[in-house]
Amino acid sequence: MNCIKISGPNILHGEVDVQGSKNAALPILAAAVLIPDISVVHNCPKIADIYHMISILEQIGCKVRWEGTSLVIDAKEIGDSRLPKEYVKAMRCSVVFMGAMLARRGEITLYYPGGCIIGKRPIDLHKKALGLLGAVFEEAADCIHAKTDGLTGSTIRMDFPSVGATQNAILAAVTAQGRTLIEGGAREPEVTELVRFLNCAGAKIVLGKKGQYEIEGVRQLHAVEFTVVSDRIVAGTYLLAGVASRGHILLHRAPVWHLGSVVEVLKKLGAKVTASGDCIELDAGGGICPIPYLETAVYPGFPTDLQSPLLAALSLAEGVSCVRERIFENRFAVAEQLRRMGADIQISKDTAVVCGVKYLVGNEVAAGELRGGAALVIAGLCARCETMITGCRYIDRGYEDICRDLQCLGGNMELMT
Ligand code: UD1
After folding, report:
1. Closest C-alpha among 383, 288, 396 to residue 340
2. Which residues are catalytic?
3. CATH code at 247?
4. Is 65 exposed, middle or buried (0-12, 13-18, 19+ CB in 10 A)?
5. What is the DSSP string of 252-312?
6. 48 and 12, same structural domain?
7. Distance 163 CA to ligand 1 centre (A)
């Protein structure tokens, strides 16, 4: 079984490139299904979730090939509207095929993506939005069949700005008949990047304020070439690793415009952060300041995906911090593993109270999900002695090669196979 071995403590120093964004690339690959032609998607990260997405695309009839870090997708012919169980179950994001396949084929059968360790993750908002556009659903114990006689534009008021449900609604609406107005949709960059991709392919989507999307249905989309933005969560993870280790690092190809709330938090932690073009430099030579209160929020708030890496950094702060999780109910599972390394974290409902300790000590710990796994890597880099992290397959879902990147920053770590 693969595991990551880290010898610490490390003070990170150096420069690294940020990979393409997982959460932006995944719905864009699903959107390629809507285009009865060739889509060329540059800067795709080579990670497990992208490989799963490719397998789904191939199963439904697309021809997909890598050219360097670009994916070339030929979706001229789409056959099967049943998505393969093994990949759908493995990856929550497969749910965005609903909107794309309803638009292209008029039907889809999908195994429930199911819950996962970070929370229940229902799909009621997806179904409500697609239902308003003309989809009807038949549900069995473990799968859902959606079909339509033709999608028609509608007004969709989202009860909560769900990222996936907004993406699904947009995908279904771009070639629907007439005009769709989405109100209260998600504003995450992963949604606006999907909009940019679709508009490059001939869609007519106008982005309004406060999560409003105005979509004029077009008959057909055309071939497109597009570059995926850099990953704000990977960038944030490495910046938090820089803070936790009191290092001095430079990120190239960083999505500077998407990191506003993260940079604010890095500054509160005591780091000096400067951005120039698409580079971010972080100097965290002093101590780590505690953060009296912070809550995760939808964009442009502090992202839930960086909450666990932040907990790792706060474990070493000079005082008490309080972090409230507002998006996913079970995002604190990693606290138990961090405690095994000496962290002092108490969880009460949706809030974590972190009393900073002087040092962490390496131990054998297990990643149970993606961002919690990244938090353990940060803790391991800063801890005294040796840390062994199992469950690397979760980390591989989002980080192309976390060992390679952090070695570039001077981290003494390796992947043991
Ligand atoms: C996406 C990201 C994930 C990120 C999250 C929030 C991808 C592949 N994943 O997930 O990394 O943490 O956005 O930024 O892009 N909800 C419902 N009903 C629904 C849909 C969602 O109750 O039908 C709830 C969820 O349980 C959760 C909250 O809404 O509590 C946010 O979920 P959502 O924004 O949909 O996140 P995802 O799209 O699943």
Report:
1. 383
2. 116
3. 3.65.10.10
4. exposed
5. ES--GGG-HHHHHHHHHTT-EEEEETTEEEEE--SPPPP-S-EEB-STTSB-GGGHHHHHH
6. no
7. 6
Report the sign of the C-alpha dihedral through residues 392, 303, 30, 143, in that order: positive
Q: What is the pLDDT of residues 130-142, one digit of tens each?
A: 999 999 999 988 8
Distances (CA, A) of 364 to 343, 350, 367, 396, 411: 14, 26, 10, 19, 18
Mutate to test the pocket of ligand 1, among 163, 232, 330 (most ligand atoms within 8 A of CB): 163
Residues linked to residue 183 through DSSP beta bridges, in sequence order = 157
328 in contact with ligand 1, CB cutoff 6 A:
yes
What does the pLDDT look like over 376-390, one tens digit per residue? 999 999 999 999 999
Question: What's the rounded Cα separation, in Å, for the pair 51 and 248?
Answer: 33
The confidence band for 84, taking pLDDT boundaries of 50, 70 and 90, is confident
Residues 320 and 361 in one domain: yes
Structure tokens at 274: 């400067």
Reported as type and span, the H/E element at residue 190 is: helix 189-200
Full-model pTM: 0.97
Domain extent at residue 34: 22-227
Query: Are 411 and 12 in contact, with CB atoms under 8 Å apart?
Result: yes
Residue 89 pLDDT class (50, 70, 90 cuts): confident
Nearest CA to ligand 1 atom 35: 162
Q: How many H helices and E strands in the chain? A: 14, 23
Q: Using alpha carbons only, what angle is made at residue 403 by residues 402 and 408, rounded to the nearest 5 degrees?
A: 100
For the stretch 178-228, pLDDT in tens is: 999 999 999 999 999 999 999 999 999 999 999 999 999 999 999 999 999
Side chain identity at residue 406, one-letter code: L
For residue 120, give every residue at least 6 positions away whose Cβ sits within 8 Å of its Cβ, in sequence order, or none. Answer: 329
pLDDT over 80 at 35, yes or no:
yes
Q: Is the dihedral of CA 49, 160, 295, 249 positive or negative?
A: positive
The amino acid at residue 299 is Y
Domain count, the chain: 2
Sign of the Cα torsion 207, 28, 227, 231 reads positive
